[in-house]
Amino acid sequence: xxxxxxxxxxxPIGLAARAWLAGLVLTxxxxxxxxxxxxxxxxxxTRPFPASALRGILSFSSAAQATVNGQSVRVxxxxxxxxxxxxxxxxxxxxxxxxxxxxxxxxxxxxxHSAWILTEKEAALPRKGSNAVITNITSGSDADSx
Length: 146
Fold this sequence. Notes:
alpha+beta
């Protein structure tokens, strides 16, 4: 009588190894996709901005201080900054950069509450605050459009 099987069964170790291998293959496949395609918003999907959101140029000088359209504004403690794919962006990663955004200010404190970094298509859409004077320097082509 032989108690040792001649073939290996797919016991818990065999299943775990197969699951690990499948995860490795899926991870490799996901990494092989072009990065640009992963970062593009879904086609035909527009982000629903609040009606009270304004348009402006935002620049962070520190995690607690920002400039919107040339005016200094404090950053609310729970401020959220979203990239074009609606993912949260850490403020320290965009310090010193000028970003075209839609933004919300808290009504009671006037602090910057939320901001959405815009894509080119979103920036082309009209919105209140988009005609704000950002600089008083005009070039010949700017003067012709006024």
